[in-house]
Amino acid sequence: MFRVLLCGILFVLCCWSEAFAVRVKDIASFSGIRDNQLIGYGLVVGLNGTGDKKDSIFTMSSMANMLSAMGISVDASQLKPKNVAAVMVTVSMPVSAKAGTKLDVTVSSIGDASSIGGGILLMTPLKGVDGEVYALAQGNIVISGFSVEGGGASVQKNNATVGSIPGGALIEKSIPYKFNNQKELTLHLTTKEPSTAMKIVDAINSQFKESAKATDVSTITIAIPEEYQGNSIPLLAVLENIEIAESSNARIVIDERSGTIVMGNDVRLAPVAVAHGNLQIVIAQNSDVSQPNSFGEGETVVTNETSIGVQETGSKLILMNGASLRQLVDGLNSIGVLPRDLISILRALKRSGSLYAEIEVI
After folding, report:
1. Separation of alpha carbons 187 and 190, rounded Å
2. Which domains, and CATH codes, for the chain?
3. Which secondary structure element, helix H or strand E, spans residue 171, and what is its range?
4. Nearest 10 degrees: Cα torsion 331, 333, 336, 337
5. Can you tell me whether residue 37 is helix, strand or coil?
6. Can you tell me the mean pLDDT for 247-264?
7. Residues 67-71, mean pLDDT to the nearest whole number
8. Average of pLDDT values for 288-293?
9. In 3-state terms, what secondary structure has residue 128?
10. For residue 15, what are the CA distances in angstroms to 9, 26, 266, 332?
């Protein structure tokens, strides 16, 4: 079923001109300036009976190992983990983070705990993809929801098994990366258009002569000028704010599940006529009960009465002569199309060769 939003369809109209100015940093990123993902396994304690159940063997094993490391010998089978939950801890660590930097932590239950709200994450080592420990996480968990059960009923708001610890991770070791030691910069474009790549190359070379070149449709290498050797940050500040005249591909994106259709401003139509008609059939069935008098000898009879209504609205034929996006939207709205109908019309236009745009269904 399509959700009807704003008369049945949401059109996102790009109201800029054919070519609009964008900054390099809006459509590209520099190699090396990125986040690194850290992950760890830990235990959340102090829950009010909302932790993992006794079937969570890995939680009980973790509790036994933790207590054993503290010099307490216990039988794992005798533990009751209802106030403890096993969790995965994740952190996004910027490449610029140094030892002592505090980062936000995301904590997610991996057992059958109903909520981790109000719990405390015990000290958890966080490792990178290389297996090295870069941070330690610990602290009180904050969640944005709740889950309450009782008497055969339950109430839940948002997700109570995922929480966060603001500033809960302390960086112990920084990423071994020296940005200023580079001899050249690499720029990765979010688009894969040769024209965009060459516009950026020309714009950079106009300020820093013969320093930039495109190695492929989405990658540009930039030789660092001598005056910026060992001090590349000022160069980045200049490069990322360079503006170019960008133009997007003609594309229509369709989300069939929600009925959302997004069209780029460059969508065009060849001369074409479109007719649209709606046929509505309503079938209703009512039950009538015929019951005899109290002292009668008859039987109660249930009869079904079926009514069928058919309604067809008049079709309209409209001519779209090299229409732009706004004209296309106005024309399709004028014949009262709904999301499902509009998707069919767009596909038919594309099949007929009258629609100059790429259609992507998600």
Report:
1. 10
2. 1-16+249-362 (no CATH), 20-32+178-246 (3.30.1360), 36-171 (no CATH)
3. strand 162-171
4. 90
5. strand
6. 76
7. 87
8. 70
9. coil
10. 18, 18, 10, 18
